Amino acid sequence: MEYHDFEKALSKPRIGRFLLAAKQDKEKALKLYRHNIELSKTLFGLLGIFEVTIRNYIDHHYRQKFADNEWLKNQCGQGGMFSHPSFIKYGFEPRTKILTTIAKLGNKYSHDRLVAELSFGFWNYMFAPIQFLVGGQSLHKIYERRPKGTNQKLIFNELDEIRSLRNRIAHHEPLIFNSRDEIMTGQTEKTYGIILKHTEWLGFDPLKLYHKLDNMNELTNKIIAEK
């Protein structure tokens, strides 16, 4: 496909950033765009597995803590963790998100469907200060292989970096250059490293869990070769 067709399909501002990174070389701009798609595809595959894993571990933790297989719904009730006054004080609304999702599911509701419907951001924020506090300050223990001294704040901040990368991919944002439109994969590679690290902390070998899905090194080498 010719450059002008891509520009027409994707919009001048979107493809124009790749043209700037390619120093006005249209063929190179298209190559960079394809590399970005390949990188996004690979990372989204890893993120899909990681997201399901982390939410399942959080769910299992609270099922055991509350001895309740319906803990999400039941902790929205009076005296439950999601009804804690701190949420009103600071404007967080996990209870609203849970109840809205339950209503949307209607007669298709089950706890497992509710777990799957809640966003990665919801699970990420289970490590936020208030959620962590009212949940008993023990959620970090799901990371069985975390280094000594690893605390809730570090886990929350790193999960938030993963969430940010996920959102950038979902919104088709470039992952292969910086704010000055220079070819650079450092930040993306850093977040990729966090995904692998958290996977290991949860007790899994990334090489096995992401078998045949992870070709990050190959892709980043291709991208850097275009500099």
The shape is: elongated
Class by SSE composition: mainly alpha
What is the N-to-C succession of helices and strands?
Answer: HHHHHHHHHHHHH
Largest sheet: none
Amount of beta strand:
under 5%
Radius of gyration: 21 Å
Cα end-to-end separation: 23 Å
**Roughly what percent helix?**
55-70%
Please, how many domains?
1
Mean pLDDT equals: 94
Contiguous low-pLDDT stretches (5 residues minimum) are: none
Number of helical elements? 13
What is the strand tally?
Answer: 0
Would you write up a description of this structure?
The chain is mainly α. It has helices spanning 3-10, 12-21, 26-66, 71-74, 85-90, 94-105, 111-117, 120-124, 129-134, 152-170, 186-201, 206-209, 216-224. It has one domain (3-221). The mean pLDDT is 94.
Provide a quick synopsis of the model.
65% of the residues lie in helices and 0% in strands.
Keywords:
227 residues, mainly alpha, 13 helices, 0% strand, elongated
Topology (elements, then pairings):
Blueprint: H1 3-10, H2 12-21, H3 26-66, H4 71-74, H5 85-90, H6 94-105, H7 111-117, H8 120-124, H9 129-134, H10 152-170, H11 186-201, H12 206-209, H13 216-224
